[in-house]
Write a structure and sequence with these properties.
This protein is an alpha/beta fold and 278 residues long. The chain has one domain: P-loop containing nucleotide triphosphate hydrolases (Rossmann fold, 3-Layer(aba) Sandwich), CATH 3.40.50.300. It has eleven helices and ten strands. Strand 9 (212-217) and strand 10 (220-225) form a beta hairpin. Helix 3 (102-112) crosses helix 4 and helix 4 crosses helix 5. The chain is globular. It starts with a strand and ends with a helix.
Amino acid sequence: MDALIEIRQLTHVFNPGQPDQVEALRGVDLTVGRGELLAIIGANGSGKSTLARHLNALLLPTSGEVRVAGLRTDDPGVVWEIRRLVGMVFQNPDNQLVATTVEEDVAFGPENLGLPRPEIARRVEEALRAVGMWERRHNAPHRLSGGQKQRVAIAGVLAMGPACIVLDEATAMLDPAGRAEVLATVKRLHRERGMTVVLITHFMDEAALADRVVVMEGGRVLLVARPRELFQRVEWLRRHGLDVPPMTDLADRLRRRGWPLPPGILSVPDMVKALCRS
């Protein structure tokens, strides 16, 4: 796997030496491949959001190192290049929109790069078309739904020309329709553009879409596995305060009642196929 992001023995301590010192990350080793969709899950306080902020140098290691395309995040000379390469989309869409129209908002990043106007216009149109928001380019962001706002936030990241997008609980405040909009956008970017995506989530059906899933607890990586392998470990996940995708839970309940269902059921199509064969 060609690595885009390499994390080696990463430790992060908040308020070091103080009575309220917290060791949020403890010796994390992880690699994110180019073109990979990686999900990171864990209970509250597991360190997943702290880890996300290390991927584009919003936080710097207390010890260990993070490299993005070979660039160390603790090198102040390359921090802006790292933040161009790794774009972040956060939980609350209202905190990420800064302009009076959708078009102006997406242009904000490229304008700060000092790009020529024709290049900015090209990037804005390409990014908005990629997330299905071009027809709303003249709309005021505050008049959009939550899902639409997050799609505009993703477009703003795309306009910077990143190699990777990190979504830190980006669907947590959305209704089901908004979640579906954002996930469809992320899947399309990953599938059609080969975009590297890191998805921090507490929704197990979202994690099931990933190429690999990282399970965190207490600031450490407990396990890295493919979704079909991971979500077979229903009782193990529950012991660690985590759930499983709805269809995986249903399959587990049916097996307990004698239905001969195969392992690895993650989605409604998986369940339909399994029931038709049983």
